[in-house]
Specification:
single chain; mainly alpha; 74% helix; elongated
């Protein structure tokens, strides 16, 4: 049976999990921020260059199409180059979005070092360790950052109570006609 545990212990467990996840994610977060800063700087430089060079464009070579065409192109010239910048911006945003998605995906697949798992096993309550075991379905594969993230989410959403209820229900079904033992975790 699981021993009764107070809400403060679960909040300490969730704090420990959140701190551990932050520590594990810090190198990736710094890399993402650096890449975003570099891409934004390059985008600003290219956009400024396009607008500056676009202001210098002359349409004198289009006089064969008539003076009205040249006047029209001269009048809409700034909008043409802002349109080019807009298209460039959309391309950069799509690329960044794709890169960030892959970065988050690979970040979740990162393997948690054994020392971190050992530290968690010593500091987490038995109920939260049970949630981690429940989340870590394939024990042939090492624990990943994604497993720890899901453990944190499940612990916050009341998975400890649900697991205690499931054990009580299993016990009731295995011995029909007897009063089931009360779960040690408060069910709300």
């Amino acid at each position: 049976m699981i021993a009764s545990n107070s809400n403060s212990s679960f909040s300490q467990d969730t704090r420990l999990l959140a701190t551990t996840l932050w520590r594990l994610a810090m190198p990736r977060v710094i890399t993402r921020i650096a890449v975003l800063a570099v891409v934004v700087a390059i985008w600003l430089w290219i956009s400024n260059t396009v607008i500056t060079l676009g202001k210098k464009v002359r349409y004198d070579g289009f006089e064969a199409f008539g003076q009205q065409v040249v006047d029209f192109l001269t009048r809409i010239n700034p909008y043409i180059w802002w349109g080019v910048v807009l298209i460039l911006t959309l391309m950069v945003l799509a690329g960044l979005r794709n890169w960030l998605r892959h970065s988050f995906k690979y970040g979740k697949q990162a393997i948690v070092p054994l020392s971190v798992v050992q530290e968690l096993s010593h500091r987490l309550s038995p109920e939260v360790i049970e949630v981690l075991r429940w989340v870590w379905t394939d024990t042939e594969v090492p624990v990943t950052v994604g497993d720890l993230q899901q453990t944190l989410r499940e612990t916050r959403s009341g998975r400890v109570r649900k697991l205690a209820l499931a054990r009580a229900q299993l016990s009731a079904l295995q011995s029909p006609g007897q009063a089931p033992p009360e779960p040690s975790i408060q069910l709300k």
